[in-house]
Amino acid sequence: MKIKKISIAIVMFIIITATFVYVYNRIPHHYTDAETLIELNPEFADIPIESCDFYQRNDVIFLGGVLEFYSYGKINVSEEYYEKLLETYSFSERSGILDYQAMNSKKLSGEFEDVITNQTYLISEEFQSEFYSFVCLSAKENAIYFYFYTY
Question: Per-residue pLDDT tens for 121-132?
Answer without folding.
Answer: 888 888 888 777
